Amino acid sequence: MDRANPGLITAVELVAAVCDAMPDAGLSVESLARLRDLMARFSTFAVRAAGCPAATDVTAEVAIGFIQARSRDGSAPAVATMHLRRAAIRLLFSEGRRLGLVEHDPTLDLPLPPRSSLRTRPLTDDEVASCRSYSIASSGETRQPTAWALAEATARSAELAHCRVHDLDLDRGRVWLHGCSKTESRWGTVSPWGARQIERRLQALRGEAPASLLICTSAQPGVSATSSASAAIADTLRRAGLHIERDIRPASVPAWAGAKAFAAGTPIQGVARMLGIRSLDRAAAFIGLEWQPDEDDPDGPQPR
């Protein structure tokens, strides 16, 4: 493999290099195994079916061919399957670019049918992993990955705008969120990946006072600060190609955190507290659930 000449990197070599580096993206063991399998299948498809041994030869047409390929039983792939395949290719090339092995992403202009009918849906684990990679545009970039880390900790745009150095408690993996018109103040949980990005941000802000803003260091108070914080998340979604999904917005990031907690067994009351949302109905709607009575839990939410 010739890192100095990306044109000589084969699709198979790209997958091998990215899989070795992927633990840095903060993936779970299950997601890591699933994405590795999809990447390996894609490299085989690119070489055998599309005749693209070099990674630079992988075009949007090759990517969509894999995304829309029929399953082993001959059936057309479900929408969720197509989104997962695209997420795997997207992460492959975003990590490849970070490693200096490729210079393009064949999936950035490949729209797919929406995964939901929601106005704002939670991101999936695979989309979050891709966005983590895309949030770091360069080795010196600290603002956008920190904004993403705080959004994963359930911060909304208005809360991001007011996060300060003294709100951090990284020893306990948390950040104090001051709330806004739609949310209550609360502690947000910072992931290990997020803590690393925030540590990098603190190093970049070395010498700043504890009351210094983390994200909107040069924005004016009020609406402009909120817009600046929202743009930091929107820019990452755009670089990851998710801006073309009509059901994805900056709020999709904290919605992912809430949906993930609910799927892991946190009751909706706990999810509502975690998100700072006062209404259980609003909390359920925010993470893509609806109230459907059943015999075991007549008031419990069910997935849509």
Number of strands: 5
Calculate Rg over CA atoms.
20 Å
Order of helices and strands: HHHHHHHEEEHHHHHEE
Please identify the top-level CATH class of the largest domain. Answer: Mainly Alpha
Notable characteristics:
two-stranded antiparallel sheet; 5% strand; three-stranded antiparallel sheet; mainly alpha; hpI Integrase, Chain A; 47% helix; 12 helices; 304 residues; 2 domains
Structure description:
This protein is mainly α and 304 residues long. The protein folds into two domains: 6-98; 127-247, Intergrase catalytic core (hpI Integrase, Chain A). Helices cover 47% and strands 5% of the residues. The longest helix has 21 residues, at 29-49. The N and C termini lie far apart (46 Å). The mean pLDDT is 86.
Topology of this structure?
Layout (H helix, E strand, L loop, with lengths): L10 H11 L7 H21 L10 H8 L11 H20 L26 H11 L7 H10 L4 H4 L7 E2 L4 E4 L8 E4 L2 H13 L18 H17 L12 H12 L4 H8 L4 H7 L2 E3 L9 E3 L1
Antiparallel strand pairs: 1-2, 2-3, 4-5
Helix pairs in contact: 1-2, 1-4, 2-4, 3-4, 4-5, 5-9, 6-8, 6-9, 10-11, 11-12
